[in-house]
């Protein structure tokens, strides 16, 4: 495996393919497979990655464990003034049309399946995510909050790339 493919991903690695975009992701607590092209599934407890649909493995991306992504989305929903657990599809009955947020395409999206997000949807989310960072970045020492802010910052980088390159955001 070349140095570019290994950059930023310590530990065991597995090449994960999307129809248009292969990526390298860390693999934790999964049996070793001889086929490096084997697509990881949710059952593998690998997690998911959000990345641009530009066919370039060097493009920015962000990844979480499934639990980490769930906690991140719960935090974002709270920042938007509602509880994700109240929402249809997340254990509640509240319909998404009752919530006014530009982050809905991210919050109400299947973990690693479903439609890709269009560059226009990515662009619509950017101002709100930037506001969230501005509201929370000033000197807070809470490590969980710092992690959420780091995640938002990374997500902004990926979304900006999708907008600038006019490519979709892929959940994989």
Structure commentary:
The protein has 172 residues and is an alpha+beta fold. Helix content is 37%, strand content 11%. The chain contains five helices and five strands; from the N terminus they run αββββααααβ. The protein has helices at 3-6, 66-79, 104-107, 119-136, 143-165; strands at residues 13-16, 23-26, 48-52, 62-64, 169-171. The strands form two sheets. The chain has a three-stranded antiparallel β-sheet. The chain has a two-stranded antiparallel ribbon with strand order 1-2. A hairpin with a 6-residue loop joins strand 1 and strand 2 (23-26). Helix 4 (119-136) packs antiparallel against helix 5 (143-165). The protein starts with a helix and ends with a strand. The model is unreliable at 1-43 (pLDDT under 50).
Tally the beta strands: 5
Alpha carbon gyration radius: 16 Å
- As residue ranges, the low-confidence spans are 1-43
Helix/sheet category: alpha+beta
Number of helices: 5
For the largest beta-sheet, the strand count, sense and barrel status come to: 3 strands, antiparallel
In helices, the fraction of residues equals 25-40%
Oligomer: single chain
Describe the strand arrangement of the main beta sheet, using strand numbers.
4-3-5
> What is the terminal separation in angstroms?
21 Å
């Amino acid at each position: 495996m070349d140095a570019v493919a290994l950059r930023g991903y310590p530990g065991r690695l597995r090449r994960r393919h999307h129809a248009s975009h292969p990526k390298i992701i860390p693999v934790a607590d999964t049996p070793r497979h001889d086929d490096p092209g084997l697509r990881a599934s949710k059952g593998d407890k690998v997690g998911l990655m959000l990345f641009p649909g530009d066919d370039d493995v060097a493009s920015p991306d962000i990844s979480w464990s499934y639990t980490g992504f769930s906690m991140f989305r719960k935090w974002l929903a709270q920042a938007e003034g509602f509880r994700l657990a109240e929402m249809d599809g997340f254990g509640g009955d509240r319909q998404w049309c009752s919530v006014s947020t530009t982050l809905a395409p991210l919050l109400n999206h299947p973990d690693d399946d479903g439609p890709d997000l269009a560059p226009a949807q990515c662009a619509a989310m950017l101002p709100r995510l930037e506001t969230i960072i501005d509201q929370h970045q000033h000197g807070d020492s809470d490590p969980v909050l710092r992690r959420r802010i780091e995640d938002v910052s990374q997500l902004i980088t990926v979304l900006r790339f999708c907008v600038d390159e006019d490519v979709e955001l892929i959940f994989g």
